[in-house]
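Structure first, sequence second, as always.
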């Protein structure tokens, strides 16, 4: 942020606080109201789509103000994980719930190992030409995840009808 927009450490801290407040509003208040209305499949797709669009907005924002405008969009990504977990838990027995949560935690840990290297290397490689490329790569990944999630949950959606 300081490289692209000239923000001070205090400004970056305030932006991160705004991210936290928006995430709190979505995850603490909106998820329990919106997901039952639109369903887990749509909430998952909405969350992944908003995350992908939000990352593209971050990556393409030429000004700090436009970057800030992306934060509420990005916070809608908070619908994705609770919806995905709800969809997954319906496909395993009660005795397998712990294994499912362990597998999800393992996948999260693996991404925590590889993602920093991938995105810092992308940032370093494209800094002079396209400083937002790492954000856009994340956006592409979320959009691919959205398409995949929509496809793999199709049979469940058809069964509900």
């Amino acid at each position: 942020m300081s490289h692209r927009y000239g923000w001070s450490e205090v400004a970056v801290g305030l932006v991160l606080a705004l991210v936290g407040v928006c995430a709190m509003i979505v995850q603490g208040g909106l998820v329990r109201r919106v997901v039952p209305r639109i369903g887990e499949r749509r909430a998952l797709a909405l969350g992944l789509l908003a995350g992908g669009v939000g990352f593209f907005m971050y990556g393409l924002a030429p000004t700090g103000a436009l970057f800030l405008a992306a934060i509420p969009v990005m916070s809608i990504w908070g619908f994705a994980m609770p919806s995905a977990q709800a969809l997954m838990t319906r496909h395993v027995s009660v005795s397998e719930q712990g294994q499912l949560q362990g597998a999800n935690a393992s996948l999260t840990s693996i991404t925590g190992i590889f993602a920093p290297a991938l995105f810092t290397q992308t940032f370093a490689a494209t800094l002079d030409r396209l400083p937002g490329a790492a954000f856009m790569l994340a956006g592409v990944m979320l959009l691919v995840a959205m398409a995949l999630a929509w496809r793999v949950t199709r049979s469940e959606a058809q069964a509900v009808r």
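Margin note: The CA atoms of residues 98 and 104 lie 10 Å apart.
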